[in-house]
Specification:
The chain folds into three domains: about 1-65, no CATH class; about 70-165, Arylsulfatase, C-terminal domain, CATH 3.30.1120.10; about 190-265, no CATH class. Strand 7 (about 215-220) and strand 8 (about 225-230) form a beta hairpin. The strands form three sheets. A four-stranded antiparallel sheet has the order 3-4-5-6, covered by helices on one side. It is of the alpha+beta class and about 260 residues long. Helix content is about 20%, strand content about 25%.
Length: about 260
């Protein structure tokens, strides 16, 4: 799709400081393309878009903010931005046993500690103004509850198990078998079969004389991911769960493949 802007972009190199969020992208593209969102799709009345078009700020660096309020929630942790202020609280969800001992007042919604920041003067959120502006925190908490009700995000479910059970599976799941050939690019986790219930990796590699070391494949990071690699001539597998690594090392060196070698595996 090619988008023709209604007028020349003014100073495209200027940095915009107005508030924006990911939910504003769809309204902005729709506005630029001159496309109105349908009110009914397949007989179902559509909910209105919560975001706002940012098209004005693209053509005018000094355009006023399209909106001033945005609420957030993730497994019980909550935050809200309104008119340059942000109030946020860190909540440890049910199942986060490794985190419960690290944060006080983190498990109970009623005891969660809130922080307050003035974003236009402290964009890195380093100065907590809760002690000097408790009334502002109370206002933002009430606004968060109202936004949560409006967006059907209340009551909050802070259980890992319940949230996972409520996930909508993909229309085209990865399946139980995946073959990857040389020359492919990076892949996302959603395109790979799940490891639940057991799994088997089979990797064909060319090992030069004298052996080799290195990563055969890896996905994710230390917060959550896994890798299969060669070290000291042995096959190693490491899986990280919430930053806690679990590793296993082969009990024998990797040897060149042959029919006789296969019979000894």
């Amino acid at each position: 799709m090619i988008i023709s802007w209604p007028r020349a972009v003014a100073d495209p190199g200027a940095v915009r400081s107005g508030f924006a969020h990911a939910i504003d992208l769809a309204p902005t593209i729709r506005d630029a393309a001159g496309v109105n969102a349908p009110e009914v799709v397949d007989g179902v009345i559509q909910r209105p878009f919560d975001g706002a078009s940012l098209l004005a700020s693209i053509t005018d660096p000094d355009a006023p903010d399209a909106r001033f309020t945005q609420s957030f929630e993730m497994l019980g942790s909550r935050s809200i931005i309104n008119d340059g202020w942000q109030a946020a609280t860190n909540h440890i969800s049910i199942g986060g046993l490794d985190e419960e001992v690290l944060a006080e007042h983190s498990r109970s919604f009623d005891e969660n500690c809130w922080d307050l920041f003035k974003l236009d003067a402290d964009s890195s959120e380093t100065i907590d103004l809760f002690a000097t502006h408790p009334e502002r925190v109370a206002e933002l908490q009430a606004l968060w509850r109202a936004e949560a009700e409006r967006n059907q995000a209340s009551p909050i479910d802070d259980s890992f198990v319940n949230r996972l059970g409520a996930l909508i599976p993909p229309l085209w799941p990865a399946g139980d078998l995946l073959v990857l050939l040389p020359g492919g690019g990076p892949m996302i986790a959603e395109s790979l079969p799940l490891l639940f219930g057991g799994f088997r990796f089979t990797v064909e590699v060319e090992i030069p004389e004298g052996g080799a070391e290195g990563v055969l494949f890896a996905i994710g990071n230390w917060n959550g991911g896994y890798a299969l690699f060669l070290r000291g001539g042995r096959l190693c597998f490491t899986f990280s769960l919430a930053g806690i690594p679990f590793s296993t090392i082969g009990d024998r060196p990797v040897i060149p493949w042959s029919p006789s070698a296969r019979s000894r595996l």
